[in-house]
Amino acid sequence: MAKALKKPDPAEASGLVNEEQRRAAELVRANKERQRQALHLQRENILSQRTSNPNRRTALEAALAQIESQIETLA
Q: pLDDT digits over 46-69, tens only?
């Protein structure tokens, strides 16, 4: 079977990205950076807490593990 030939898009061929695509990519990047910063602040908050209560310590460790996995997902 013959494949249909696709005409190359001049913008794609030259590597140019239109302004709308660039802005969308920048918004995605900025959103990820804000999420990363918020997660790091939460992580620092958990690490700064001291407790002798074993139940509270277990909850903090679980929260820390969850936050660290979210940070890895964003990376």
A: 999 988 999 999 999 999 999 999
Residue appearing with tokens 């790091």: 40
- Inter-CA distances, 71 with 5, 13, 36, 44, 47, Å: 43, 35, 6, 13, 15
Burial 29-39, CB ≥16 within 10 A → b, else e = eeeeeeeeeeb
Q: CB neighbours (10 Å) of residue 68?
A: 13
CA distances from 30 to 33, 36, 46, 50, 67 (A): 5, 10, 25, 33, 19
Those residues with Cβ within 8 angstroms of residue 11's Cβ, 6 or more apart along the chain or in another chain: 17, 18
* Cα separations in angstroms, 7 against 4, 13, 16, 53: 9, 10, 16, 67
